[in-house]
């Protein structure tokens, strides 16, 4: 089995849930690389920057590689200051999901992980980013096996970390859909996401399609490529696991054994992401 | 301030120019640009002829090659870039970092604009593209407030122009990083050059209603009085209503003075797929607005007829929408 990596938690877990997760994963030999940091909305304020650094220290002491994930959307002066703060106080690798983070890592000559949301679709772009310091690449979730094989056929290959489990991030807005569900704006959100669960967007035929998570839209279906481990190409170096709920952590073994209802894998087979396709 | 209009055909480009557009943006038929729709792309022959005509009139033509090159088919994207250079296009609109690098290997002087699909949402991002690829303009994603645009203008080199969307269909998600269309259809703007491609859209009568579906997913149930929204997941009417975004179009007419004060050099009008009547009328409204011949409210009144759901919004430019 390939090593697991733990994606940053995108949903608004409580501080105690986060602490418990990182404590468990620190001693779980399946996991080698752990991503930390609040990536969706810093207004959540669940853990302070100092607390994140303390978690990083504990994970490092347990022998894990720790990567600090920068916010997924950086569109204000405050966001840009935060990026500077992370790079000043954190000396390890960072995860970049937008060009701001790439620019910051490159300017500071720091190695970085290219996250799923960087628009890397061909070898020219991959090579350019590797030239800027990208050492690990997690391809966009919409790229399937056929596209990746074409992309990696004639190029220097970084460590490829495949998004293999979890709800997929499908879009980010300036608008907070979570606040909108209660008729509030993002500026006056009253930190609703800390008390009100994320809203599932169901069609009028009751198809659970998407989940509104702050200002991001996630898939309702959990992507599960773990169950396809036996057929994974050699260039996939690790499996990225993205947890939506704490209880999923204990179920990873069963997800590896087989697909569950509500799990999807369409993108991997160059189909609609929402479907569950056979190989 | 430049009025930059969409052109999906030579007739559309002429309509825009005749009604006061300073420049038009076009794409080659196919997947090399983000309007891979039937009838929204040009042949190379028509692009060359349009550029010659425009230059005689003192107008500009920008060529959008703003999707991401597909492995094994890079030659299509490279050809579009090479042709733009040989035709002397006034700008190449690129989103793919690899293509920006490729364009610079061919020419130091070709004018590069970072497409909205490049998703440069900050000073650092835009500055990196300026430093690395000498882009001359950045088209800002629709996730920035006017205040943030003004801040970016002050912080960026003066040789780097800022273009924003003035009017048209509103993407509520940051461009270049949206996979919603792919989740429903397997085809996305980044991987295919189109959001919600037409072949996946169906309109079915269902008693008194019409069901609008995207690859089988029910997006909307419309009665005869409801204006048809775009068939996208972001504008769908879920059980929880329009939980992401109502059917509405972006208009910055009432923000024109603020955008000018913020240092925006160009207003982009969306809609290469919408035909010559749209291009001509919308070009005229914006020309008159920019030149002070009409008021923002007068323009918005006219634009409403062309707006999705007949609704206009200032989108993320102001706090209310967020």
SSE blueprint:
The complex is a heterodimer of chains A (279) and B (322).
Chain A: E1 4-6, H1 15-26, E2 31-36, H2 49-61, E3 65-69, H3 77-89, E4 94-96, H4 99-107, E5 112-114, H5 123-131, E6 134-137, H6 145-152, E7 159-172, H7 177-180, E8 199-202, E9 208-213, E10 216-224, E11 236-241, H8 252-257, E12 263-264
Parallel strand pairs in A: 1-2, 1-11, 2-3, 3-4, 4-5, 5-6, 6-7, 7-11, 10-12
Antiparallel strand pairs in A: 7-10, 8-9, 9-10
Helix pairs in contact in A: 1-2, 3-4
Chain B: E1 2-6, H1 10-18, E2 23-26, H2 44-56, E3 60-65, H3 74-86, E4 91-94, H4 97-106, E5 112-114, H5 123-133, E6 137-139, H6 146-155, E7 161-169, H7 180-185, H8 189-192, E8 201-206, E9 209-214, E10 217-222, E11 249-251, H9 256-262, E12 266-269, H10 275-290, H11 296-303, E13 312-313
Parallel strand pairs in B: 1-2, 1-12, 2-3, 3-4, 4-5, 5-6, 6-7, 7-12, 11-13
Antiparallel strand pairs in B: 7-11, 8-9, 9-10
Helix pairs in contact in B: 1-10, 3-4, 6-9, 10-11
What does this structure look like?
The complex is a heterodimer of chains A (279) and B (322). Chain A is an alpha/beta fold and 279 residues long. Chain A has one domain: Alpha-Beta Barrel (TIM Barrel), CATH 3.20.20. Chain A has eight helices and twelve strands. Chain A has helices at residues 15-26, 49-61, 77-89, 99-107, 123-131, 145-152, 177-180, 252-257, and strands at 4-6, 31-36, 65-69, 94-96, 112-114, 134-137, 159-172, 199-202, 208-213, 216-224, 236-241, 263-264. Chain A has an eight-stranded parallel barrel. In chain A, helix 1 packs parallel to helix 2 (49-61). Chain A is globular, with a radius of gyration of 18 Å. The model of chain A has no long low-confidence stretch (mean pLDDT 96). Chain B is of the alpha/beta class and 322 residues long. Chain B folds into two domains: 2-170 and 248-321, TIM Barrel (Alpha-Beta Barrel); 181-235, no CATH class. Helix content of chain B is 33%, strand content 19%. Chain B is built from eleven helices and 13 strands. Chain B has helices at 10-18, 44-56, 74-86, 97-106, 123-133, 146-155, 180-185, 189-192, 256-262, 275-290, 296-303; strands at 2-6, 23-26, 60-65, 91-94, 112-114, 137-139, 161-169, 201-206, 209-214, 217-222, 249-251, 266-269, 312-313. Chain B has an eight-stranded parallel β-barrel with strand order 1-2-3-4-5-6-7-12, surrounded by six helices. A three-stranded antiparallel β-sheet of chain B has the order 8-9-10, with no helix packed on it. The longest helix of chain B has 16 residues, at 275-290. Chain B is globular and about 60 Å long. The two termini of chain B are 27 Å apart. The relative contact order of chain B is 0.15. The mean pLDDT of chain B is 96. Classes of the chains: A alpha/beta (279), B alpha/beta (322).
